[in-house]
Design brief:
four-stranded antiparallel β-sheet, alpha+beta, 11 strands, globular
Length: 316
């Protein structure tokens, strides 16, 4: 904490490359930054630190060229009020229903303002609890009798009290309305978890996807072409599931992703495919917060070329 305070008190002194490399690059300080994010009010300044810690290089917001730089730029530009609805796991349902139909929504069991509002006695034996305003707070309950209610309460209450915007400066989350939703538990036959198909769309056109799955307790993450072949690039976290096969209605998934992404410069559309039934997952505007280490690195540039954004030098 002492080094972080010294840096914030006189950032110009410590922004030299040598000092930064010797004293500030590292996972521990990155974690300190995230945990103290709300103390830094200037969004541009925060993104410069966020990118430097995460990517180990300087961020150019005046002339962003790479994919990871442009994701940071989009954080400052994605101020459309609709986007705040699209990242809200409850309010987005009406939008999805209008665009692709109710049949692609995971059945909703209930929506709650606080944990104490949940009547567990009336919930089915299996269900999923999610907070609507952040990324990753999900409780999967396969058997209600075995659910640790105190653990669930702490996890959900902590999420409800956190504004996800401050850690990554993703504008759509800034004015989120924290709630808890309960959904039907959808399970994938012969799989330990739902296979998540994440379509990367640029101006309404799907270009590639990331697939995440789990097998024998191991998480698999890989990038694929729309021909369902391994992509030319991967990332530091890529591991390939050897059991993956192309769904028979995969073309329908592409069509749904493109329909949902129409009119948006860049967004990731997450879908599930269970026994041939396609379910909507979520909208993600800034994949992994824009901290992605491509292999080979040239793909950071190639994918950056697909995002068209205006000059942001005079933005927030």
């Amino acid at each position: 904490m002492g080094r972080l305070k010294r840096f914030l008190s006189n950032p110009k002194k410590y922004l030299s490359m040598n000092y930064f490399l010797n004293h500030f690059i590292g996972d521990r300080l990155f974690l300190l930054l995230l945990n103290n994010a709300s103390r830094i009010k200037n969004d541009k300044f925060y993104l410069h630190l966020f990118y430097r810690f995460g990517m180990k290089r300087k961020l150019d917001l005046n002339n962003p060229t790479t994919y990871t730089e442009k994701i940071q730029a989009l954080k400052l530009l994605n101020t459309n009020p609709l986007y705040s609805i699209l990242v809200d796991k409850y309010r987005v349902r009406d939008h999805v229903r209008e665009k692709i139909g109710d049949e692609h929504l995971i059945p909703l069991i209930g929506v709650f303002d606080k944990f104490e509002d949940i009547c567990f006695e009336t919930l089915p034996n299996s269900f999923v609890l999610k907070t609507t305003h952040d990324s990753g707070t999900v409780i999967i309950c396969k058997e209600k009798a075995g659910l640790d209610l105190e653990w669930a309460r702490k996890k959900l209450v902590s999420s409800l009290s956190t504004n996800y915007f401050y850690r990554t400066r993703e504008y759509p989350y800034k004015f989120a309305i924290p709630k808890i939703i309960a959904e039907k538990l959808i399970e994938q036959p012969n799989s330990e978890s739902l296979i998540d198909y994440k379509f990367f769309c640029f101006r309404g056109k799907a270009e590639f996807l990331q697939i995440t799955s789990q097998l024998n307790g191991k998480k698999y993450v890989g990038f694929y072409t729309l021909d369902f072949q391994l992509h030319e690039f991967q990332t530091h976290e890529s591991y390939f599931d050897p059991t993956l096969i192309k769904p028979q209605n995969f073309e329908n998934m592409i069509q749904i992703a493109e329909k949902l992404s129409a009119g948006i410069p860049h967004v990731r559309i997450d879908l599930y495919n269970v026994d041939g039934k396609i379910y909507f997952g979520e909208f993600t505007f800034h994949h992994n917060g824009g901290i992605i280490h491509f292999n080979p690195p040239i793909w950071d540039v190639k994918l950056g070329d697909k995002i068209i954004i205006p000059n942001i030098s005079n933005s927030k």
